[in-house]
Amino acid sequence: MARSFEKIGYKSRRRKGTPYQSAMSMLNFYINRAGKNLPEKQQHVLEHAKEELRKVFGREE
């Protein structure tokens, strides 16, 4: 999942920041819009995708 957001981050023509910022922003937007209606399993998958996205872009903490 993180790889697909990485591709989206690089391909986005409307971004104002870096590809990393764009990809993370899109992922957070999806998580926030789904809100409490998102099943717990899917929430876990998306939170894991955020961690993987950090690794893909070399932004590990």
Please give a structural write-up.
This protein has 61 residues and is mainly α. It has one domain. It contains 3 helices and no strands. Helix 1 (2-11) packs across helix 3. It starts with a helix and ends in a 5-residue tail after the last helix.
Going by helix content, strand content and strand pairing, the class is mainly alpha
Strand-residue proportion: under 5%
Percentage of residues in helical conformation: over 70%
- How many distinct domains? 1
Tally of alpha and pi helices: 3
Order of helices and strands: HHH
Radius of gyration: 12 Å
* Counted beta strands: 0
Q: What form results from the Cα inertia axes?
A: globular
First and last CA, distance: 20 Å
**Biggest pleated sheet:** none
Q: Give the uncertain stretches in residue-range form.
A: none
Write the layout of secondary structure elements.
Blueprint: H1 2-11, H2 19-34, H3 40-56
Helix pairs in contact: 1-2, 1-3, 2-3
Brief descriptors of the model:
61 residues; mainly alpha; 3 helices; 0% strand; globular
Summary?
The chain has 61 residues and is an all-alpha fold.
